[in-house]
Amino acid sequence: MSKDFSVHVEHVTRVEGHGNIILDVKNGKIEKLQWNVVEAPRFFEAMLRGQQYNELRSITSRICGICSIGHSLASLKATEDALGVKITNQTATLRRLAIHAENMQSHILHIGYLVAPDLVGAGSVFSMLGKHTDTVLKIVKLHRLANEMSDLICGRTIHPIRLVVGGFSLQPTEKQLIQLKKRLLEAQELTTELAPIILSVAGNLPSFTRETEYIGLTSDEEYSFYDGDIASTDTGRHPKYQDYKEIMQEYIVPHSTAKYAKHARESYMVGALARFNLNSRQLHPVAQDIATLFKLKAINYNPFMNTIAQLVEFSHSIQDSISLIDTLVDQGIKQEKPVKPEKKAGRGVGIVEVPRGILVHDYTLNSQGYCTKANCIIPTNQNHANIQQDMEKLVPEIINQPEKEIELTLEMLVRAYDPCISCSTHYLDVSFK
Amino acid sequence: MKQKPRVAVFDFADCEGCELEIADLEEEILELIEIADIVSFREVMKEHSDSYDIAIVEGSIMRPMDEKRLRSIRSRAKILIALGACATMGGVNKIRNQWMPDEVKKEVYGTVDLKGNELFDVFQTKALNEVVPVDYYIYGCPIDRDEFKSVITAVALGKKPDIPRYPICVECKKNENICQFELGAFCLGPITRAGCKAICPTHNSPCEGCRGLIKKAETDCVKEVLERYKLSYEDIRRRCTMYNYGRKECSYDE
User: Do B106 and B34 have their domain in common?
Assistant: First the structure.
């Protein structure tokens, strides 16, 4: 039982950004166990100082390559909230399509390229080729479709172009949308084929549980991504979105350039599993079937199941996108000009669900429309404390396993959260005089 | 047959979007594997080797600890390629250089004592070539996948990559777009290096200058455009600071 060892993983691989895991064990007792974020801080809120309202979305999109559509949408919602801009129904529908495209792109990248290698004992998707070529090609096909969907709606997958204050700089044509629908129907079939393949290796996901709080958006109308109230599995619904800071209480720890967050407990979790735990009843039946296949039921307290919740959401996003396209085609898609703001000054808060969880942008604009104060609350920041808490419960449970196994399990835990570390080191809210 | 060059991908302060553009090549990445071996790429693979010929480096340099890591990468690589706006010119990370690091740190971290903590020891944002010599540049925020393929193919085959030396307007006209100025927008296309197929104006959004300013920009022409559309010179300077803070113009061989 008494053994001395250390697990030091510098720059965990197959995650976005730089994070380290440190575990020191002496005489079988944990001396040190830390999840550290070592990415260079980037000061995004400081960089927004003095920028004009219509440029905020361009700059904040650069917080993250994977969720640049989500950052753009949170940014636009905050700007439009500040300036009293009311977007059209068509814009709202197209933005929902944009968020689905990003959700699909990010989820399949995580499931297929970042997690799958662990499940089949490979180091990367490249080394999965050969034995698992068919599966890799299915994943590649789905990933490509999600990217091309983003390209169509947003002009580009990474750092969207068409998403602007008040609407879109350019809209897709009816013909393009009908074509997209056809491909989405094929993608749903492909997803249904992929699910049992993932199930066959899902036994390699650790069966670990720890009760925690889950936070995300919720709404009466839909499985929330673009709109909704902040909700918690502990404290229920919080309709006052401007008071998000009461829910997402951020704080600083010295070993991490990203902030941590807590609410009702020591930590909470956001992301696909949080959304599933809050809103699973609103999933499309096809997505519900996938959840049933994996015996995933709300509330599920196993963080490793986040990847499976992503697969469920992937299927839901396909199906909901098909419905949204039907709506657009029925109503006839118009080339609309963006709605112009009538005032320049104000404070606005924009909240959306991005692949990794709930995201907040909060801006104050002066009478010339320039930003004087900005705050962004990033999903991954809200998960750091929960990762740490999970590790503290997990390590004693696996401490007798070989060191290599412990290291792999800890890496898999970090990966399960799909952390986006570049995002999370945007850092802190800043006030300018 | 000559051995395939060994390629490693690294990142510093950035959004990792340019690396994602590489991952988004999807099955086309298999064509690149034909001419080069990828031996390290932390974002997508666990395998890692310190023995490589070509280092592709993304991101800006913010701290002494990053400088040290970059120098070590440079010492191992025969060829170093800067990937994307953050690496080639500092990108949006340079917006904060209009204030001193102490000022930004104080504003951002407030009263929290972080003295002696190397994680937070930031200096003004640097592009890679402000720390080590860079051999080739792949511009853009994000990079253009086709340009990435052509640069990597050229370098892997021992040739010099061909990067455009003319402004975005050339590509924009080729796409038969209506000029953004004509539509009442303010566009940096006339002074920005081409190579992105004028993607932003093609989606009816003005150029933001993410590929850097071209050498010997036709400033008289730009002034004329500004006058014609009653725009101020402050506007053009401020827009230039999104990607080109503190830079006058790019040279091709920096």
Answer: yes
The verdict on residue A34 lying in a domain is no
Contacting B residues, span 100-119, partner chain A, CB-CB under 8 Å = 104, 107-110, 112, 114, 117, 119
* Min distance A236 CA to chain B CA atoms (Å): 32
> What average pLDDT does the segment A212-229 reach?
98
Rounded Cα–Cα distance for residues A84 and A49 (Å): 21
pTM: 0.93
Q: A392 lies in a domain?
A: yes
Residue A325, preceding bond cis, omega within 30 degrees? no
CB contact under 8 A, B19 and A65: yes
Any idea what the CATH number is for the domain that residue B134 is in? 3.40.50.700
HSE-up (13 A, CA, CB side) for residue A251:
10
Q: Is B204 on the interface with A (CB under 8 A)?
A: yes
Domains held by chain A: number: 1
CB contact under 8 A, A55 and B205: no
Note whether residue B161 is domain-resident.
no
Q: Is B61 helix (H, G, I), strand (E, B) or coil?
A: strand
CB A362 within 8 A of CB A45: no
Q: Measured between alpha carbons, how far is residue B38 from residues A124, A228, A320, B16, B76 in Å?
A: 11, 44, 38, 17, 15
Encode pLDDT of B16-66 as tens digits.
999 999 988 888 888 888 899 989 888 778 888 889 999 999 999 999 999
Question: Whole domain around residue B118: which residue ranges?
Answer: 6-156
The answer to whether B66 faces chain A, any CB pair under 8 Å, is yes
Confidence of residue A101 (pLDDT cuts 50, 70, 90): very high
Is B120 found in the same domain as B22?
yes
Enumerate residues 6+ apart whose C-beta is below 8 A from B58: B9, B10, B11, B12, B14, B16, B18, B19, B83, B84, B86, B87
Residue A49 pLDDT grade (very low, low, confident, very high; cuts 50, 70, 90): confident
pLDDT over 80 (residue A178): yes
Owning domain of residue A395: 44-431
Among residues B111, B130, B156, which one ends one of the domains?
B156
Q: Is residue A370 part of a domain?
A: yes
Same domain as B139, residue B172: no
What pLDDT is stored for residue B236 in this prediction?
66
Q: How many structural domains compose chain B?
A: 2
pLDDT in tens, A180-203: 999 999 999 999 999 999 999 988
Same domain, B103 and B227: no
List the CATH number of the domain containing A358.
1.10.645.10
B28 touches chain A (CB under 8 A): no
From chain B, pick out residues whose CB is under 8 angstroms from the CB of A63: 15
For residues A168 and B201, give the distance between their C-alpha atoms in angstroms, rounded to a whole number: 13
